[in-house]
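Re: the request from the purification team.
They wanted to know what the chain is likely to look like in 3D before they choose a buffer screen. I agreed to run a prediction and write the result into the notebook, where they can find it.
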Amino acid sequence: MLPRLHLFEFLDQPWLPARLRRYASDYLAHVQNRFGFDRLMARKLGDFLTSCGGSGESHQIVDLGSGAGGPIVGLRRHLATDGIELDVVLTDLHPEAETLERLSREPGVRYLSQPVDATAVPEDLVGTRTLVNALHHLRPEQVRAMFADAAAKAQPIVAFDVVERSARGVLSMLLVPLIVWLITPRLRPHRWSRLVLTYPVPLVPLLCTWDGLVSQLRAYRPEELHRLLPPGLDAYAFDVGTIREGQLRVAFVTGRPVGASLSVPALGPHRTVDPATSAHP
């Protein structure tokens, strides 16, 4: 059993140069999509949105902790192939000017220039809140405050984390430098600075390896997340669990106001929710 350790991560630091943040985020987004995590999360998010209803097949998403672009953009593309359109508002406590400019060309996506705290989202930001692969960046008191804020303002929320606090998860980080070196030529746009910071001056692989290792040690187990949910809510329902497919595992928390439609559709073939780690308060 590995205790949860909230150690230092470079991507949490506002002083990290935007170029390094962008290149590390590009690596994470590519790996997440390449190994199928995006597909798993998109299906779960699509099921949740469908069960909550909405305006036709279009849904307003308020993404929290979007960083250098937010993995929700990749999930949006997956869902579009299933006929589910998302209007996405990206937010972050430290929004980046370069990201704002880059994503201004992405259809259906806008990035707010003002800071947004995931634990106290402005009331005018209405829609299903998402936090994709970022739960481990929050301390326990921040996780509790984020879910309490969503419940208090009666906004649905979906949070995913693909990291896993286990010996397997920690050991897998030994492969990160090799993976970064192999996939960098495929990443777009091509930049000489990306190549320089990956090969002769390997800051990107070192950053990704350290942050990846720390992310595994910061990861919450489903039972720990369950204990962080606000208690005694009659008008709001949470669900905690793990989606499994082969070797892939994604922890999730969903929450929404209690209404006419509360049953979440079945996850479909080839996907299961581990009953040993699922909780329905």
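For the purification team: The two ends are 25 Å apart (CA to CA).
Please add any questions underneath this entry.
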